[in-house]
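Interim report, section 4.2 (structural modelling).
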Amino acid sequence: MSYLKIFENKTGIEKEIDDFLDQVSESGLLFNQGIEFYLSCDLDSFGRLLDQIVGTEHTADTLRRSIEDLVYRRTLIPESRGDVLRMIENMDSLLGKFKGAMWRLQIEGPEIKDFFFQDLQNLVELVVKAVEATTLSVRAYFKDINSVADHMHKVSFWESAADKIATQLQMKIFQCDDLSLCEQMQLRDLVLHIEDIANQAEDVTDSLAIYVIKRSL
Amino acid sequence: MFIFFLSSGLFLGWSLGANDASNVFGTAVGSHMVRFRTAAICCSIFILLGAVISGAGASQTLGKLGAVDAIAGAFVVALSAALSVYLMTLAKYPVSTSQAIVGAIVGWNLFSGSVTDKAALFKIMLTWVACPILSAIFAVFFYKLAKLIINRYNMHLFKLDRLTRLGLIIAGIFGSYSLGANNISNVVGVFLPVCPFKDITFFGTFHFTSTQQLFLLGGLAVGVGVFTYSRRVMETVGDGIFKLSPVMALVAVWSHSIVLFLFSSQALETFLLNHGLPAIPLVPVSSSQAIVGAVLGMGILKGGRNIRWRIVGGISLGWVITPLIACVISFIFLFFVQNVFQQVVFQ
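Predicted structure of the assembly:
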């Protein structure tokens, strides 16, 4: 370890973690926009955003591997490295879920009726908010551990709101006579996929709560 | 012949290096915050420096307790202390070379019919109690201070990690210096009255006294102990006995080092006396008890739920058992060496 770096404000690994979390945050925004384009049948823009989110995931993967390598090779934060690496992997998986939902739309191309638009947009917005609050919690874990709780409780809030709206949307889907059972099930799976992102975000913050206790002096 | 008799002191020095270095760098190495090689190099160099530069203070108190005036006697006293340390380690009691050597000197006093200076003995025993208590008080203070600073400045996890590593190395260096200064008299202090070395002057200005030469040899033995045997002990200490966060480990080592420094610094003693303040007695204290005292202090501050009272009991028992065993072994060995090997063990 170079002891000259002790008093630097930000070193490589800190910047890499920040960049990685930026990618996760960005993927949420891309997903939100992507859904908007899909619902407005602007498939060219949707395809462009899909390419962008694939690139974001690729960058995030590179950063994740570099963070893991640095933490282990330089035996940094030995007490917390297991927790930190698990957290980074879970965040990467959230990003993967956003990308997966976009690919699902691209591959399956489900037909979404107008009267589902509002609920679907609300669901996506809540899920993105949950992931955003998770990202803020994780950032706070590194930079300001006392404020982790301020962001964590919002994740639970957005997750339960997303849960309610997803249930409501599924009921509407199965009550819709215009759809065949096969279409209903396809839409149901899409809704569950999106809702699962918020569930996973909540799981990340649940683990984070334990990591915070472990790190407390 | 002197070197042969000194071997028991060097053996004691080796075991001090093997065991007590873990109090200074154990938590840092065991928790992978500092590499063993870095720890061993820093530890050996600064124990040696502490021994040669500041080792004289605590040895004067030991001298007052009993001036062993025959080389064979000094050999037996150091060997008895070393064996007591070994036996206590086998019995898994926290062991203190300071207590062992004091017990062995009292054994020599009893055998030779010399009068034990009760005031000096009382002073030494008082510091054994004061040492962990002081260490606990310092630990509570520094722990609160560290918490305040960390919360106030919202340090990034990785920056805190870097600062903690640097802190552990600085505290380890300070602790090693203090350990050398405070405990070297345990290792070779009994040989001072019979030391045949002559003072050496380099370039007419740099004086290397016979005491310093003796302490240098003792310090080298401690250094060898650190390099050859302390790794396992360090890793055990870091992983097993003290399950502390790196910041708590830093506070523990820092508090332990300050306490050892207080009980060995002649400069501080002079400063206090010059300002009309009561001086802290310069006495060899137990490094193990200082570090356990610091951990206990933080444990009590956190509500006391995770304190391992068996260790506390072991320390208390060690206060009584170690000097007693050393005293008995010393007395019996002196009898053998005098009557079986026909050696002069006192003048």
